[in-house]
Amino acid sequence: MSRPAGPAPLLRRILQRGACAALVSGLLLVRQGRRDACSGAAPLNAISHWLWPESALRQCGLSARYTLVGAIIHWGASCFWSAIYEGHRQAGAPPPRARPPSRRPPAPASEVPSHDLVNALALSAIAAWVDLVLVPPRLSPGFERHLSDASLCRVYLAFGIGLAWGGARGRRAHRLPPGTRQLHVES
To answer: Is the pTM of this model over 0.90?
Structure first.
């Protein structure tokens, strides 16, 4: 018996896209922090300025207080934008319907539909505008104080790519042969 569509698959897509976007952009934050700032940890530390306004922006080394908290906030913000992305997708998507099996082989799992990538990059541009222009400095990401403009562009570009990649990973999981993924049985 198939599972009805509901909040669980939507939440899973939000978390998967958010995690991929946070991972890709977070890795680039570290890389660009090594180039532009005192260390790779500085941009992640700066994100925790939401909790420690002055001290977080000055921290260069790895620490649980600043780096770990900054990474968690970054992941949460990525999931927030992922939820907006999925909400937009749901609003424009036709209702699901049963389709007869296709005679065409499925697309390669690594392929990201171009409209998904374009939409994810558009959302990352909106996120950059909101984060860097619209919100007051107290609610900004903080890493913009350690990175050059070029690095910021790269980070937000990576964020959009991560959103699209997270969606492609989710689609790949649904294309696996039946015996390779966990089955859910309702009783």
So the answer is: no
